[in-house]
Design goal:
Blueprint: H1 17-24, H2 29-56, H3 60-64, H4 66-71, H5 79-100, H6 105-117, H7 125-147, H8 149-172, H9 191-217, H10 222-236, H11 240-250, H12 263-288, H13 292-300, H14 305-320, H15 322-335, H16 347-355, H17 364-393
Helix pairs in contact: 5-6, 5-7, 5-8, 6-7, 9-10, 9-12, 9-16, 10-12, 11-12, 12-14, 12-15, 13-14, 15-17, 16-17
């Protein structure tokens, strides 16, 4: 009988650059022709773009208005509050990377070094100092997390829960004019700051609302099911810009004369309600993908309906739709640009005001390339984190 150890493994195909090129790009004459044509088109496009970036584009429009792009008209003397809030987020990021992603060296270096890399952009001396402090804070957080990962785990989770209220509190202020932290009106919030707040609030509040709507749509109680279906179908049948107009222009007509609701708050509520309807359908798809045997097995163990849904069904359903959820969150991030149409100065709204300045007329390409770069970096970051989360949960590569 042949010994198991004496059996040679099957021959494996050698891998190399030349073999990959022949297999993927030059497998036939048609593939070779298409590869050459594609390479020429890419060379022509990249060469033209780089020539424009380094020799033609007038980037002074971005350098002179960098503060507007980042925080809108937020008072410069109170900007330290935003830096403190960002420092707290960087500290939590460092802690989280050390506790839950210790082997992700590339992501750790990229995230913690990104503030220092931003000093290459045309910021002033004061922002450059704060950006370096952010990187140092992140490294300190990583060191503390690596030293005591078991002790800090729950504290870091609590810190993330409190981070949004603390960020909004620091941004708005608590004392009257002349105090330590004077209140800054939301009419002065703008740029990337407003885009960030609209996105984070919309994602955090639409997620639980969407899950409840999805569960309500599958409920056996007719009233709950009909209300959930009516809400989902009504909101999904209306464009987001219509909801923004309703919130900004129509809602004040139905309020008592002395009642006013902040415009930023109305935009946040509109984003949350719209995103929740789409997220509910995504969650419902995940729930339908769970086999019926999972319900029967949970009932056989004596679990109630609520326990079955919370501990057995819902975690599996959410795990299945991680890519769809991330796609929904990225869509929310990009859809916030529509608030510029109703007069709010988010990143796109600020870009329009910059282009209206007499000194920078006709520089649309520079401004919109810069804004597009910000959107791409943040969207790709969310996509990359979702891939890492899938690998961490064992879903695998798709």
């Amino acid at each position: 009988m042949t010994q198991a150890n004496s059996v040679l493994p099957p021959l494996a195909e050698r891998s190399g650059v030349l073999r990959w090129l022949r297999k993927n790009l030059f497998g036939s004459w048609l593939d070779a022709i298409l590869t050459v044509i594609g390479a020429l088109i890419i060379y022509w496009a990249v060469k033209g773009f780089l020539t424009w970036v380094f020799t033609v584009a007038e980037w002074e429009v971005v350098a002179a208005n960098m503060r507007l792009f980042m925080v809108g008209q937020y008072p410069l003397e109170q900007a330290w509050r935003l830096w403190v809030a960002l420092g707290f987020l960087m500290f939590l990021t460092g802690n989280s990377l050390a506790i839950w992603a210790r082997r992700s060296y590339f992501a750790t270096i990229l995230l913690l070094a990104s503030p220092a890399l931003l000093t290459l952009f045309p910021f002033g001396d004061e922002p450059r100092k704060w950006l370096i402090i952010l990187s140092v804070t992140g490294v300190i957080g990583w060191g503390m997390g690596a030293g005591k990962p078991q002790v800090l785990g729950r504290i870091v989770i609590l810190g993330w829960i409190l981070s949004l209220p603390m960020f909004i509190l620091l941004t708005r202020g608590v004392t009257p004019e002349g105090g330590v932290m004077p209140i800054v009106g939301t009419n002065l919030w703008g740029g990337l700051l407003l885009t960030f707040l609209l996105t984070v609030v919309g994602i955090l509040f639409s997620f639980p609302l969407g899950v409840m709507l999805a569960l309500g749509r599958r409920s056996e109680l007719p009233i709950i099911r009909l209300v959930s279906v009516a809400y989902i179908e009504l909101v999904r049948g209306v464009p987001l810009i219509t909801i923004f107009f309703m919130a900004q222009l129509m809602l004040p007509l139905f309020l008592p004369p002395n009642w006013t609701v902040d415009r930023i708050l109305r935009a946040m509520v509109a984003v949350t309600l719209f995103s929740a309807a789409y997220l509910a359908e995504n969650v419902r798809g995940g729930l339908q993908a769970i086999p019926r045997g999972q319900f029967e097995a949970a009932h056989a163990l004596g679990l109630s309906g609520a326990q079955t849904m919370i501990f057995i069904i819902l975690p599996q359903a959410l795990r299945l739709i991680i890519p769809i959820l991330v796609g929904q969150f990225i869509a929310v991030f990009k859809d916030t640009a529509l608030v510029a149409i109703v007069g709010l100065f988010d990143l796109v709204g600020i870009a329009k005001t910059v282009l209206a300045q007499p000194d920078f007329l006709g520089l649309q390409r520079e401004v919109y390339v810069f804004v597009s770069l910000i959107y791409w970096v943040l969207s790709y970051g969310m996509s990359y984190l979702s891939q890492r989360l899938e690998e961490k949960l064992g879903v695998g590569k798709r």
